Fold:
Amino acid sequence: MKNVLVGVLMTVAATVVQTAFGEEAAEANWGLMEQMRPDQLESVMKATPIAFVPLGTYEHHGWHLPIGFDAIKAYALSQRVAQRTGGVVLPPFFYGTGGGHVGYKWTIILPEEQIRPILETTLDQLSRFGFKVVVILTGHYPREQVDMVHRLAEEAATRNPKTRYIGLSEPEVTTPLPGDRRRGDHAAKYETSIALALNPKWVRLESLAPGRDPEQVTTPETPRKSSPTHDPTHPLYAIYGQDPREHASEAAGRVIVKEIVDRLAKQTEDALSSTQK
Ligand SMILES: [Zn+2]
Structure:
């Protein structure tokens, strides 16, 4: 039984790889843009003219998560939605703006004016190529980034009236879990649970340990305060939210991921049908 299951899983994995790389992608309903040839892109776009633009940033995500996690997460979530709806997923865009980690080592936060022209051109080109729906999903969600994404979508829609643009952050399609008032956090219960559900290999909870050398793990610009979030010797350094060691779980992550994918797929499909009326 176990061998049968392994065989089935291997077949599923092979199909996914072939979807991205192989000739079968011509018949698949979705793909990763940078790995697709022009004929494959035409074929997928003709069947489902939807493009996904996943955004994030480079930002310290605690000792236990990758520093690019926001973009990695948005990329993985976009792929799950695309598997449902069809469409083309662009590579993750790792440059973001705003947030409480400016000055932290391994964080690269840019002013909006440095990011905006690249994204505006990308959104306009996608419309010219023939996409009818463009979903801009940010996994990095300080107010500055969320406002930027909303504005980018609105303004792109004005410039390109034939295309519907959906710009949103992941908490906008997330409900607080039972007992919680807030949805979303930074490298705490929510983000860590999502990571555990998407790919447990991204998470090293055992790295949440004290005792690092502040000189080594900060730069001269790094803000230093006594709270755990700002104390580089603390296990919960850089984390905003509930302690992931106690509160994060793969099961919670699966609930959150399912909700995000269900809601985003519905919004995307509704937007596409509105363009076909
Ligand atoms: Zn994050």
